[in-house]
Structures are given as C-alpha cells and as structure tokens.
Design brief:
Layout: H1 2-23, H2 25-28, H3 32-62, H4 90-111, H5 118-129, H6 134-151, H7 157-180, H8 182-193
Helix pairs in contact: 3-4, 4-5, 6-7, 7-8
C-alpha cells in the first residue's frame, strides 16, 4: 500500500508546486509591496540555507567521521561532505542556488540597483560546486553548448571572445571540481567502463 501511496503522493506534490508557484503567484504577487516582500523573504531564506549548509560542512570538518545533517526530516539519510542547506538533496541545492542567481539579478533589475556583485557570483557558484552534483555540472555544460549554438552566431566579435573566455573558464572550473571530488571522479571513471563490459 505504501508503495502506491508514495507514487500518488509524488503527483500531488508536483500539482501543489504548480498551483502554488504558477497559479497563485499571479494573484498573490500583484503589487509593488508584495514583490518587494517576496524578494526580502527570498534573501532571508537564502541566507538561512547558506548558514545551515556551511554549519553542516564545518561540523563535519570539526568532528571527523561525523555524519552530516540528514537530507530528510524523518529519515537519517546523510549525504556526505556535500553542501545541501535546506534543500535536502545536494542536486536540489544546486538548482536552488542557480535559481537564486536569477532571482537576485531580477531584484537588481526591479530595484534598479547592483547588489549582485562579483563576490556574490563567485560565492554562490563556489557553493554550487560544493554540492558535487553531477546533474548540475551537466546542466552547466549543456547551457554553454546551447549558448554557442543560439547566441554566438549573431553576437559581435567582442561578445564572442568574452563568451569563449567564459566557457573555457567554466570548463576549467568543472574539470577542477571533478578531479578534486572523489564522488565525481568515480562517475568519470565509471563512464568509460559503462559500455566496455
């Protein structure tokens, strides 16, 4: 019974997310005050996520061999030395951190300010790398690939050179992240043995 209940419950969760974040947002976030309130709460939630995630990593360094905060409230499922904050799954934390960059950029456009500085770009990107999420790294790879296909052909020479530099920098960062992570290195090694059996 529990097996079928969980399957239907997943559909309910997906429907809840759609109704709450897509349908209700059109009716709840309609005024300037409501939009500013949303941005304020989002930043507070982001800082709490950073605090919990880095506290977890710090405690693991302090007490070697200690299991990390569980990814679920009622199940003791540790994720190892990976940032996950309040997101539970590290791969969900990666998506949340990338979303936070978009939300913070949107806030700057809305308020006509520049609070999303280079420091925050580097800090959030570094935190995303600490999730050691392979799916997140693949997402960045495909983003760079699509950037080349759709954006670069119509861009100026200066933008093309900057984009190529940016992509090469991202590839270097991804390579360093993979080589420094035992988990990601294992994925890399096993990939070449996948079809050799």
């Amino acid at each position: 019974f529990s097996r079928y209940f969980r399957a239907f419950f997943e559909y309910f969760i997906a429907l809840y997310y759609f109704v709450y974040f897509v349908v209700l947002a059109r009716y709840l976030i309609t005024t300037e005050e409501a939009i500013n309130y949303f941005f304020r709460l989002f930043v507070i939630a982001l800082f709490i996520c950073f605090f919990v995630g880095f506290l977890d990593l710090f405690l693991q360094l302090l007490y070697e061999g200690r299991e990390s905060f569980s990814r679920q409230i009622f199940k003791n499922t540790p994720v190892g030395f990976r940032f996950h904050g309040l997101a539970g799954e590290p791969r969900d934390a990666f998506s949340y951190l990338m979303l936070s960059l978009g939300i913070l950029a949107l806030r700057d456009i809305w308020k006509d300010q520049k609070k999303l500085t280079l420091f925050w770009l580097i800090f959030i990107s570094t935190t995303a790398m600490l999730t050691q999420s392979l799916s997140g790294l693949l997402g960045i790879f495909f983003f760079c690939f699509l950037l080349f296909i759709y954006y670069l052909p119509n861009a100026s020479l200066k933008v093309k050179l900057l984009s190529i530099f940016f992509v090469l920098l991202v590839v270097l960062i991804l390579f360093i992240n993979v080589t420094m992570s035992v988990r990601l290195t294992r994925y890399y090694v096993e990939f070449f043995h996948l079809y050799s059996q």
